[in-house]
Amino acid sequence: MQFTGDGPWELPIAGLRVRRLTLAMTLTIGADGDERGALLSLPGPFEMTTPSQETVRLDPEHQGWEEMSVLFALRDDLITRASASSDGTLEVCFSSGHRLCARSEGEFEGWEIAAGERTIVGTPGAVLVWDEEARARAQDIDVSELGDLLARLRAGRPGA
Question: Where are the alpha helices (DSSP H) in the chain?
Answer without folding.
Answer: 65-68, 132-139, 146-155
